[in-house]
Design goal:
By secondary structure, the chain is α/β, with parallel strands linked by helices. The protein folds into 4 domains: about 100 residues, 2-Layer Sandwich (Beta-Lactamase), CATH 3.30.450.20; about 55 residues, no CATH class; about 90 residues, Arc Repressor Mutant, subunit A (Orthogonal Bundle); about 220 residues, Alpha/Beta hydrolase fold, catalytic domain (Rossmann fold), CATH 3.40.50. It contains 28 helices and 16 strands.
Length: about 600
Amino acid sequence: MSRSAGPDAPDPLTPWLDAPGEVAEDIRSGSRAYDDTFTKSIVGYGYLKPDRLGLALLARDGALVFANASFEASVEAAMIDRAAMDAALAGDRVVISRSEPADGAGASVTMAYGPVALARGWALPEDSLRQLEKTPCAVVVLAIAGADTLESLSDACDSFGLTPGETRVVIGLIATGNLRDAARQAGVGYGTARKAVFEAMRRMGVTRQTAMVERLLKLSLGVWPVGREGDAVLSDTWGLTARQGALAYRVSVGMSRTEAARATGVSEAVAKKELAAVFAALGVNSMAALSRFVVEARALSMLTDVIAGGLRQGDEVIEPLRILPRPDGSFIGFSDYGPRSGAPVLVLHSSSSTRPVPRRLVRALHAARFRPIAIDRPGFGMTDPRRAADHPDPFDAACPDIARVLDALKIERIDVIARGGAQVAMAMAARMPERMGRVILINPDPPTRPDERRRGPIRAVKELFFRRPELIELFANTMAAHISEDRARQVIARLVEGSAVDTAAMADPLNYADFYRGIRMFMTGRAVGYVREQMAMTRSDPPPLSDASDWRVFIGAADPLHDHRHVDAYWRGLLPGARFETIADGGRFIAMTHADRIVASLSAEAVSS
């Protein structure tokens, strides 16, 4: 599925890949020929975890002809909404409805119905598409599989550090929408359930049950694209007025009725009346149930939106995500790969990736008895951005989050491996040197400057960033809006062109999958951190350290992005006493191709110290 304006719309990435030299020269000469090709608003993919999606195929008379395991486990045959199916067929459109179990004892299920011709364009897993092609049917039904039983919701609770007891109560609340029913389902008293929910909200840094439900459900479902609000979905699908949709969405994400009324521009009395109409229209009887319904309806709307692209299926790699609230209510996302007994190592990501650590590097660190920890920096991945006015230096802005995570994990001092991200390591050395142990920089990037030695797309991009930094955000939006998985393969092939070792590295399915996981967040439109760090790279240099004897720098001689001699000379000027090693058979991805060598160096340093 394309996210461009239409099937015949030109792809703005084509000249950057096919004729990067011409683009670079045009930018150098002051041409503005490319300004109008950039995407002005963020439109990105989201990613739905496969185990959250139930699929069924119906005959025209409503008979069930196929259901996958997730659907069978979550949906009773009597819950299929024949009226919604008939409306979908009659209007040749998608209809989303919510069904209760016949005996009223189980959890409700949100489902989307669509004619088979439309469904062939939905964002479905490959096995579902194959089933769709070989099974005669009239209507396809998608269901968000039972939120009260699935492991993914428990994982979401675990990422916030909720206890097993708190998790049982919270899952019960999400399933039933009612705290008394949740207490019965969890096998505890009402007072105990209230305390569990209060403690869960405290751990999550929220003050309302609706915000807790909304955040846990979104996290359990997957990764959501930036800018995709829920009020339009409510208005378009259930015929709510724009005001009703706005109020319903705002209270569902954690606003009080008073706050939602003020934000919508109505009195609290009007908001109360309108929300009563919303509850009746949607068939819900609590704020928690409303929050669950809005999240699931938004997910199904994105799945079935054949024009905007919707959600894609996420990979099966389990990333040990943890979420830590900041004092202001925003969140830090990080991964703790364990084991707790290992020596902690902070693995910094580059400005063009996010926290997932390449699996070969994780395995090498584990084999050497280290405990890798990776943190999404502000505005990257699962970490909320910080206000630029409060934190003008994006590298320095990462330090309070790093300190907060270390405090939460009770780690006083940590070694650092920066795979890129060298400027963050320098900021840490300036702001929190007492918490840093040994430091390894892998292919540290120099500042963005005009450089005739660069070639291919990277030269064109760096020319743009240096000469027109105001366009960095638009370039990032364009990448998010147009770089499908197939396009990502083309991009990486062009970026490593001329580097045989990197081409071979990306031909390895494990390496490419890890690379793709690292950049996938940008395809959701979450590029604030990238934009701020790239802008900072065009205008400032970190001051040199007084002593870098605990630092070691590895540089790939075949790195296609930078001349290794230039990188060596630049960083030697900033890191007096550091040891430098140029890897003759290494390129851009030495964190993958030479993971054992890098970790062996860290282990040797640990022994010698």
